[in-house]
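This section describes the prediction task in plain terms. A model, or a person checking by hand, is given the sequence of a single protein chain and must write out its three-dimensional structure as a string of C-alpha cells. No templates, partner chains or ligands are provided. The sample shown here is typical of the held-out split.
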Amino acid sequence: MKNKLKNLASLKLLSEAMLTFELKKYEVIAKFAETSDWNQVYVNDSRYELIRLIMVSNFVTKGFFTMSDLVGTTNLNTRSIERLISRATKQGYFKKIPSRDKRVIEYHPTEEAFSMVAMHLSLFEVLVNSLGPHVKDILEKEVGVSLEQINEVIAELQEPK
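The expected answer:
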C-alpha cells in the first residue's frame, strides 16, 4: 500500500495539470452553455462532448457532418443523437442540406457552430498550457500548428457576424 501511495505521489504535477484542465474545461463549457442555451445534459455528459468533437472534426475535414458520422461512437442511442442535432439545428448551429444521396442529410456549420468550434479550440489551448511549455514545442513540431495560430483561428471564429 505504501509503495502504491509513493508511486501516486510521483504523479503530483500530472494530477495537478489534469485537475486544472478539467476544472477549466468545465468552466469553459458551462459558460458556453449559458451563452448558447445548451441543455445541461448536453454539457455535463461526456458522451455529448465526444459527439461535439466529432462534429468539429468533420467540419474541419469535410465541411459538414452526417448522422452516420456520429452514430456508434458512444453508447448514446440514435434517438438521443437525433434530439441533439434537432435542437442544435433549431437553435441555428447547423444548416440541413440534402446530399447527392437524397437519403442522407448533411449538417453544415453556421456562425453559431463556429462559436462551438472556438470553445473546443480554447479547451485545447488550456490543455496545452496546463501541461507546460515543452508541450507547445511538441505541438508545433508534431502537429504543425502553434498556439498563436490556434488563437488567431479562435479570434476569427468569434468575430461578430
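For orientation: The longest strand covers residues 94-98.
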